[in-house]
Amino acid sequence: MTIIDGKQIAAEIRAELKLKVDKLKEDGNNIPGLVAILVGEDPASNVYVSMKQKACEEVGLFSKVDRLSADTTEEDLLKLIDQYNNDNIYHGILVQLPLPKHIDEDKIIEAISPFKDVDGFHPINVGKMVIGKDTLYPCTPFGVVELLKRYKIETKGKHVVVVGRSNIVGKPVANMLLQKKAGANAVVTVVHSAAEDLSAITKQADILIAAIGVPEFIKSDMVKDGVVIIDVGVNRVEDSSKKSGYKLVGDVDFENASKKASFITPVPGGVGPMTIAMLMQNTYKAFMKKNVL
Q1: Is 204 a residue of the active site?
Q2: Catalytic residue among 52, 116, 171, 285
Q3: Catalytic-labelled residue, pool 5, 96, 253, 281
Q4: Which structural domain, as residue segments, surrounds residue 255?
Q5: What is the rounded CA–CA span in Å between residue 144 and residue 142?
Q6: CB-based burial label for 234 (10 Å; 0-12, 13-18, 19+)
Q7: Same domain, 96 and 144
Q8: How confident is the model over 231-252, as pLDDT tens digits?
Q9: Are residues 244 and 209 in contact, defined by beta-carbon separation less than 8 angstroms?
């Protein structure tokens, strides 16, 4: 059994990007710029934005965090996005979700220029992804596909079972692995809470991608021997032995399921670090498309 080290792969991707950005600087070119907009004081969002800023510094991207109060109006946020859409210093715009309840997230996502949508959530980019055109892909599914590629895990003709159908992970990763191209070309089943016998389907998986948001939901008796398990879940569960009072676990019962797996991602340290690495990748890609260097 091989543990897929997302932390290591993410570090490799950041190092590769740093070389590319350093080369841009040497040649006297502009460099990719990313702005993150944070509305309110959500603690988890604060942590994510800080991690993204740190990754930008490491890669050498120009970055800025725009911190807005929780009572910022939808209208003001839309105006700010419009301003960044027209600012050539920034090639990527990221609005950290979730947003306060009075702001319509769909409206905000659609206001970001598709060319600067480094989260890959804009309907135009989602549409391009579905029909197999090159685009800015959603970062977490992009990270999953990249992990499979870098560990040389064959996807062609393999049965991939995706547990979960969210717009952020389940649907996009299913679409990406379905495409008729290298690193994809899989037979994909998406299974969710409406399934009468969910485990009958998960047991068929050559590659199981768990993105359901339920701690340790996938048990060892739900998978077959030799399965590749990609665990996208990040759940906090109480743990009095920890200083914080909780521990992070995935959507898979790692301890037992890992005994049957050929490859498995841990939580933390699996898919998580890849999300930010692919955000850096998307920002660089948006820059290159704009500048056609």
Answers
A1: no
A2: 52
A3: 96
A4: 139-272
A5: 5
A6: middle
A7: no
A8: 999 998 888 888 888 889 999 9
A9: no
Would you call 96 a catalytic residue per the annotation? yes
**Inter-residue contact 214 to 235 (CB < 8 Å):** yes
**Tokens linked to 208:** 């199981």
**Can you give the CATH number for the domain in which 48 is found?**
3.40.50.10860
**Number of domains composing the chain:** 2
Residue with tokens 């702001």: 103
The answer as to whether 284 is a domain residue is no
Please give the DSSP secondary-structure letter assigned to residue 100. P
pLDDT tens-digit series, residues 112-164: 999 999 999 999 999 999 999 999 999 999 999 999 999 999 999 999 999 99
Is 7 an active-site residue?
no
- Strands 62-68, 33-39: parallel, antiparallel or unpaired by DSSP? parallel
Rg (CA), the chain: 19
Strand partners, 66: 37
Same-domain pairing of 187 and 83: no
Report yes or no on 33 lying in a domain: yes
Q: In degrees rounded to 5, what are phi and psi of residue 72?
A: -55, 135
Catalytic residue among 5, 116, 117, 119: 119
